[in-house]
Amino acid sequence: MKRFTLGFIIGGIICSALTGFAVEYAVTANPFPIKVDGVEKSIEGYNINDSTYFKLRDIADAVGGFTVGFTNNTITISTQATPPEPANTDGAITIYEGQPRDNRLAKEGDIFVKADGTEIVLAIGPHGVLGEGQGVAPDVGLMDEVGQGDAKFTAPLEANGRLITGKYGPDSVGKETSDTQYQVNILTGEGHWSSEWAVINDYTRPTETGTEVGEISADKNYFWNSLTWVLVAEHPEYSDIFKVN
């Protein structure tokens, strides 16, 4: 059985193999047909000492799944289907649900794409909070620099996570994100910074008394804890007592 090895061969290597190392390395054109998923492909290959080599870019073109480039005297390989969106502060951006991104905070007019492909244009809600009532958590996935001193690392912001550096500035109600927590309502999927949830709470917390522990409000933002209505987003650990209407 022949051994097939994926390699990147440039003219200089072939030339040296045929001249200075001619005795040690025998180079011939690949004599075997190439099939990708059963479909024959025309790919130039070379047989060197019983191993078959192909140009990396030719394999990328034939198989897909990665791209090859050459920048600053460095061969680059990218396995991303689409290049990451560059960081920017102007104009609308597209945000994909839960996907990491090194970018600014979500803003009004940005397009949020849910996991099922539904697109939602982010808007300021009736109480001045971005995305209020839209059932989305647009800032989940922001790349967060966490840690202290030199022991810092970058990780995607998750539900009920906290930013350390504050590099994203104020949220939609003007509070610095470094001083707040990002909280997601596990019943609706809606997420806001804790300062934004505080504004929502000021206007929408039910006034009537709940009837049983775990009772959920009509908007699913609150649960009754036997004494008062509490934001679901603030206490996801109590999910076992939630009773959805």
Explain what you see.
- A hairpin with a 6-residue loop joins strand 15 and strand 16 (191-193).
- The protein is elongated and about 85 Å long.
- The protein has two domains: 3-78, no CATH class; 94-199, no CATH class.
- The chain contains three helices and 18 strands.
- 11% of the residues lie in helices and 27% in strands.
- With 245 residues, it is of the alpha+beta class.
- The model is unreliable at 1-22 and 83-87 (pLDDT under 50).
- It has a four-stranded mixed beta sheet. A three-stranded mixed beta sheet has the order 9-10-11, with no helix packed on it. A three-stranded antiparallel beta sheet has the order 14-15-16.
- Average the pLDDT over all residues and give the rounded result: 82
- How much beta, percentage-wise? 25-35%
Number of helices: 3
State the helical fraction. Answer: 10-25%
3D shape = elongated
Number of domains: 2
Major beta sheet, strand line-up? 1-6-5-2
What letter string, H or E per element, gives the SSE order?
Answer: EHEEEEEHEEEEEEEEEEHEE
Number of strands: 18
Distance between the ends: 65 Å
Low-pLDDT ranges: 1-22, 83-87
Q: Which radius of gyration do the C-alpha atoms yield?
A: 28 Å
Structural class designation: alpha+beta
Task: Tell me the major beta sheet.
Answer: 4 strands, mixed
Properties at a glance:
3 helices, disordered N terminus, 245 residues, elongated, four-stranded mixed β-sheet, 11% helix, alpha+beta, 2 domains
SSE order and pairing:
Blueprint lengths: L2 E2 L6 H8 L8 E3 L4 E3 L2 E3 L3 E4 L2 E4 L1 H8 L3 E5 L2 E5 L15 E3 L14 E3 L5 E3 L21 E6 L2 E6 L4 E2 L18 E4 L6 E3 H11 L17 E3 L4 E3 L14
Parallel strand pairs: 1-6, 9-10
Antiparallel strand pairs: 2-5, 3-4, 5-6, 7-8, 10-11, 12-13, 14-15, 15-16, 17-18
